[in-house]
C-alpha cells in the first residue's frame, strides 16, 4: 500500500495548531512509516502519544492518543490484535502505530480490514525505529503547537480587548473576527437583528458556529460565523468566536450603563422643567442642549398613561418600547422620558396630532389602554411646568369623563367649562358643590343612591328623559321618580335660569373634584 502523506490525507481546512495523524507522518521520527489502513480517518487529531505494552492499558485511554506498540503481547493471536481496533475506535483514539519486526513480521489482513471499515488509522512502523523517539517527537510537537495556539489566541484576545478599550464598536469586533477566520461573521441582537456584519452573510442560512452574548445571565444576542461551503468549524474559529462573544458582552454592559446614565440625566432635567420654573435659565438650556433638546421652540407638555385592558391581556410594557414609539410618531428630537406607567413629552406644535401618538403607543403595548393628555403650548420653557399641570388635570378629567372607554385623547385647551373651573381654588369649587348638590350627595351617601349621577346624565342629554334613562339602563318611570326626589331635596332649578346654570356648573365642579381626588 502506498504511503499516505499529509497533503493528500488532511481535511479541506486543518485547524491551526492541531497535529493530525497525516501530519504526524511528516515528522522526522516517522519518516519510514506508512498509513496502512483507515485512510479516511487520517484527519483525526492527536492529543498525546503513548506506548502499549499490554492490551489492558486501553481502559486508561481518554481519547486522542496515538498508541504505539510492538504487539508483543498479542504476537501469536492475530484475532486479538484485530479485535483491538473496534475498542480503540470506540474510545476515540487517534491512531494505532504497530512496529513491524521480530515479534510481528507483517500486519494481519483482518486487522487492516477492520481499520478500513471503521476509518481508524493504523500506521505501520518500520522495525528499526525507536518508539521512544516517536513518543518524544509527537508529544513535543503537540505541546509546541498548543503553546503556539494559546499564544495566537491570546494575541487575538489582546487585539479585540484593545479595540473595546479604545472605544471600539460591534463593527470593529466583527471586522477583526472576519479577518482572523477569513469567514463572514455577524453580531446579532436578542431579536435576531444584525447589529454588525462583515462579508457575505447569508440572510436565511443557519450559522454553523454561534456563541451567545450573555449579560447578567440574560441572553442579549449572539456572535455568528459562516464557514466556507458549510464546513465544520475548527477549534481556532470557535475560540475566536468565544473571545468576540465575551467582549461583545462587555460592550453591551457599557452601552447599558451609558444608556442608564443618560436616562437618569434626562429624567432629572425634564422633571425639573415640568415641576417648577428653572432656577438658572442658562444652566437648564445648556443641559438640555447636551441632550439635543431645543428649548427655544414653543412646546406643550404631553402625558401618556398606560394601563392593563379590562380583559387582562397585554405584553409586558417597557419604557424603551414606549419611547421608541413616541419618537417614531413625533420625531427623534422630541424630549421624552419615562414615568411610572407611561411617558411625559415636550411636544412642539405643528407636528403629528396627539391621536397619532396614542395609536403609536397602543401599537407598542398591545393589550393595554392608552390615554393621552396635553397642556397648552408655552413659548417660554420657564412656563412648561404650567403646561404640565394642565396636562395632568386633563388626564384626571379624562379618566373621570372617559374612564369607561379606557383609551382617550384629551387636550386642556378643549376642555370647555372644565378649563374655566380648573382655574378656581378647590375651596371655591367645594363651596359651589356643597351649596348646590350637598343634600343630594348626603342622600346618596346614606342610601347607596345615585341621584347626583342621574342628574348629571339627565343634564348631559339636555333634559331628555328617554335618552337619559336609556344610558342609565333604567326604566323611564324610575328616572322620573329620581328627578322628583332631586326636586324635593334641592328645589326646582328648571324654573330659574340662574339656578339651572348653577346646577350644571356644580355638577361639572363635582366631576372635576372627583377627578382630582383620584
Secondary structure blueprint with pairings:
Elements: H1 6-9, H2 21-24, E1 34-37, E2 48-52, E3 65-69, H3 78-90, E4 95-99, H4 109-118, E5 122-125, H5 131-165, H6 170-181, E6 185-188, E7 194-198, E8 209-215, E9 218-225, H7 235-275, H8 281-290, E10 300-308, H9 319-330, E11 336-339, E12 342-347, H10 354-364, E13 368-374, H11 384-402, E14 408-411, H12 417-421, H13 426-447, H14 451-460, H15 465-472, H16 476-490, H17 497-517
Parallel strand pairs: 2-3, 3-4, 4-5, 13-14
Antiparallel strand pairs: 1-5, 6-7, 6-9, 8-9, 10-12, 10-13, 11-12
Helix pairs in contact: 3-4, 5-6, 5-7, 6-7, 9-10, 11-17, 13-17, 14-15, 15-16
Structural write-up:
There is one protein chain. The chain is α/β, with parallel strands linked by helices and 518 residues long. Helices cover 49% and strands 15% of the residues. The chain contains 17 helices and 14 strands. The protein has helices at residues 6-9, 21-24, 78-90, 109-118, 131-165, 170-181, 235-275, 281-290, 319-330, 354-364, 384-402, 417-421, 426-447, 451-460, 465-472, 476-490, 497-517, and strands spanning 34-37, 48-52, 65-69, 95-99, 122-125, 185-188, 194-198, 209-215, 218-225, 300-308, 336-339, 342-347, 368-374, 408-411. The chain has a five-stranded mixed β-sheet, sandwiched between helices. Helix 5 runs antiparallel to helix 6 (170-181), helix 5 (131-165) runs parallel beside helix 7 (235-275) and helix 15 (465-472) packs across helix 16. The radius of gyration is 41 Å and the shape is elongated. It starts with 5 loop residues before the first helix and ends with a helix. Residues 1-14 and 309-317 have low confidence and may be disordered.
